[in-house]
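Need the bound structure for magnesium ion, inputs here:
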Amino acid sequence: MFLAGFFLFVALISGCDSQRATSVLLTGETMGTSYHITIADENSNTSKERLKKEIDSKLIQVNELFSTYIKSSEVSRFNAYHGVEAQKKSAEFIKVLAEAQRISDITQGAYDITVGPLVNLWGFGPSFKEEDIPDLQKIEAALSEVGYKNIVYDKQTNEVRKLKESAYIDFSSIAKGYGVDVLSEFLGSEGYMNYMVEIGGEMRVKGVNSQGIKWRIAVEKPDSMTRSIYRVISVTDVAIATSGDYRNFFEKDGVRFSHTIDPTTGQPVQHDLASVTVLSKSSMTADAWATAFMVLGDKKGYDLAIRNELAVLFLVKKGDEIREVSTPMFHKMTEEHSS
Ligand code: ADP
Ligand code: MG
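Answer from helper R.:
Posting the output first, comments after.
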């Protein structure tokens, strides 16, 4: 369910033989996907085991906040409560909620973490479902539960309130990004200066790679049949997120149903936009924007990206052809390689 529309060729690109002897690689499983961390600091005399242990426990903490797959998580408890009384939440919960709500405001609800009932109805949520098209009545019913304005919070008291009893939050579009931020900040606090953190395709890089140059990241070609590189970008001190309709979807009678839902129609988005890559300071922000742009499409999305000075690469697919639309900020923040 958390399969990302993004693929890493980091090992391939950076070339294993020329890596510094001290470069540390850590991998594991989390959020229904995998994580990869590369530390390229020259003088890291780290205990790999201790680092991995700490990282895994940080990821467990993130899941205990934001996973709808864990019944006792903070978000699941929020969802299970059907009422309008204020609920005290952790500072982390409020932080992620506030960022989601900020992006909902800017996108006028195209991005909306209360789409959960629709996500579940279309079979992309925690409860297993046959791949099928739900009937219109059910879509209408789920739609009536959706609306980010039904959730209000107070940053001073860390209290959250549902204005609608049944409001349900789905943090899937932002939780991996938040997890990447947590791990990046943890590595920073451990004194590292050069590293790359990735969870299910959401990434954040700092400093330089093991060859002492900017991190080279592959943007995947949006194709459900193959895994190949569309372009390699060189970046530093930034987060990179990609959303796409080419990994997590189902097909029925030749029509593709994406896991990105348009909260105005209650339907999976249907357009030629095959993938969106967003660069931003935090991975949480990049992750949420990538999903937001998949809903908006490349035309509305591009205008909004320009107005908000965001670094975005849209890949639009017509048949076998890929057309690229990218913002000046995207060019500014990347050094491109033909690869
Ligand atoms: P991607 O890599 O394609 O962005 P994510 O897992 O980051 O995948 O985000 C997709 C998930 O976001 C969906 O599975 C669903 O849970 C949730 N989602 C779907 N539509 C929306 C929306 N309009 N706003 C916010 N979240 C959404
Ligand atoms: Mg996302």
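Comments: Residues 107 and 304 are 8 Å apart (CA to CA). The chain is about 30% helix and 25% strand.
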